[in-house]
Design goal:
Number of strands: 2
Mean pLDDT: 76
Structural class: mainly alpha
Strand content: under 5%
Low-confidence stretches: 1-16, 212-249, 253-269
Radius of gyration: 18 Å
Oligomer: single chain
């Protein structure tokens, strides 16, 4: 595969209340954030320079500035160092896990129901996440937000903004460059309230709820997604989806269109 790529996910598009240009720009931002939070495998690291170019072509905004800070670091680091940092940051630290329902429900029965509810939301929108990941994995939630639009697609992000704020706080405390990616996402969402900040501080101090039983129905979804407290072991990372860039050099005037749907629709679009 050519190194000149833009890595985007695309399985269809729903109408939004934004203008077409605004919708495309917001969709591209969410897709880029989704991509940059994926495991940096060989395909992703091979496209680092192209991703940095794509980010530099974004319209000036707080989100674009944060993504630029991250991609500058991302493009300069050796691939092995990137992978080691990713595993240490997201797989070995509970406070910066990318599984959003964990922050609301911890290892309890309510988390299993939250996962089912999220999966039903995807299906109701005519979209099936078929890459083997849990439905609350942040890159997957961002992919859905990019495709379904601000009202429907971004609702799970708004629901879990306290968890997102906690992830950002943990990444900032760890001085991880991934803090810029979370800051870019938070800049797109409604501002965190004082009540949110108090809840995040309490969550950081006490951690999510814990429960040793009743983790079905998602207990058999993948290995380790409901490990006992203190031994969190997320599922394997899903690979990114690749799409050829529309231009090898110049900044595009508008985000590229997504590829034809690769998933099976299950409802009206």
């Amino acid at each position: 595969m050519s190194a000149r790529t833009v890595l985007l996910r695309g399985r269809g598009r729903r109408a939004t209340r934004l203008t077409p240009r605004e919708a495309r720009e917001r969709s591209l931002l969410l897709r880029l954030i989704s991509l940059l939070l994926q495991y940096p495998d060989e395909e992703l690291t091979a496209a680092r320079d192209e991703l940095a170019d794509e980010v530099r072509c974004l319209q000036p905004s707080p989100t674009a500035r944060q993504l630029t800070a991250f991609t500058d670091w991302f493009a300069a680091r050796p691939a092995d160092a990137l992978r080691a940092h990713y595993v240490e940051t997201f797989d070995l630290r509970r406070k910066s896990s990318l599984y959003l329902t964990y922050y609301l429900h911890g290892d309890t029965r309510r988390r299993g129901m939250a996962l089912l509810t999220l999966n039903r939301r995807y299906r109701a929108a005519g979209w099936r996440a078929d890459d083997g990941e849990l439905p609350d994995h942040l890159p997957l939630v961002l992919e859905f937000a990019a495709l379904a639009g601000p009202e429907t697609g971004e609702a799970p992000l708004r629901q879990h903004r306290r968890g997102l704020a906690l992830i950002h706080r943990a990444l900032t405390d760890a001085d991880s460059p991934y803090r810029h990616v979370l800051a870019a996402l938070l800049a797109l969402l409604p501002p965190v309230t004082d009540a949110d900040l108090r809840a995040v501080a309490e969550l950081a101090a006490q951690g999510p709820p814990r429960e040793d039983i009743g983790l079905a129905p998602y207990g058999e979804y993948g290995s380790g997604e409901f490990a006992p407290p203190g031994t969190f072991a997320p599922p394997d990372q899903a690979p990114p989806t690749l799409m050829p860039a529309p231009s090898p050099h110049a900044c595009p005037s508008a985000p590229p269109s997504p590829p034809s749907p690769s998933s099976t629709p299950e409802g009206p679009r």
